[in-house]
Amino acid sequence: MTDHLVAALDIGGTKIAGALADDGGSLLVRAQRPTPAEGDAESVMGAVDAVLTELASSPLWPGVGALGIGSAGPVDAAAGTVSPVNVPAWRGFPLVERAGAAVGGLPVVLVGDGVAMTAAEHRLGAARGHDNALCLVVSTGVGGGLVLGGKLHAGPTGNAGHIGHISVDLDGDLCPCGARGCVERLASGPNIARRAVDGGWRPAPGEDATAAAVAAAARAGDPVAIASYERAAQALAAGIAATATLTEIDIAVIGGGVAGAGDVLFAPLRRSLRAYATLSFVRRLTVAPALMGNDAGLVGAAVAAAAVAAGGRSGALRAKAAR
């Protein structure tokens, strides 16, 4: 890691978070704005600019050597563009170029949010010490990243491990990505809530229909809420088992807001995993909750930026200076 500070952005369908981080991964200064996900491209970029402007107002800013961005995907790290499924206005959006201009030409490195979370969990969290791991972000969407042979494996465009868009229900609902029956369509927070509402569950008066509210109802014994989480767990288990069969991972780490449901999610997930991970070389696969919490995306983006600031290169972690 470099001795210089780095800036980091975590861009999702709900919020755009930013931070300045030191060489130990500590987040020293924070900024955040809601994502105007239904707005036009410039509205979303305006929120990014607002976060970067707030960070740049810190007296620590002159020590920043690079900017790391973890974005909801898919991303194209080689081209510097993003097309988040949950942000319709951004399709092939030149985020690296635009963010680089906003930070005065500092090097910018782009990774998918799942890859960012994986970098954080492998360096400091639940995947630490594991040479082969899958890390998942289960929140507004479902993302993921891989560690293979002890190294972060981002793939040529930065999307390797994007488990949310593996199809696990061939005749399932149409996903915003264009495919059917994706893990994300079954296991993301909004879809857990949607399925519970469709089944007749209703939140308490004055409460929104969220995955957290469904989890609370499931803990209280509501059968519709329980069934919605069991279906989400089944989808995640099928995707994880398929990934393990292909890559021989030995741990799946799950973070994001939906993981906050605890045993409401993890108990049926472990049961379903035993039903799907049946081959001898994947039966020892374990599932663990992420340890880095809501900071995983920022810490992972900072790890990527620090590697660039130090002159490192790894897979799809390619830096581009704004031109």
TrEMBL record:
Q: Which domain of life is it from?
A: Bacteria
SUPFAM superfamilies in the record, alphabetically? Actin-like ATPase domain
- One Pfam family assigned to this protein is ROK
* Database matches in InterPro entries: ATPase_NBD, ROK, ROK_cs
Q: Which protein family is named in the record?
A: Belongs to the ROK (NagC/XylR) family.
Record's protein name? ROK family protein
User: What is the organism field in this record?
Assistant: Streptomyces nitrosporeus
Species classification: Bacteria, Bacillati, Actinomycetota, Actinomycetes, Kitasatosporales
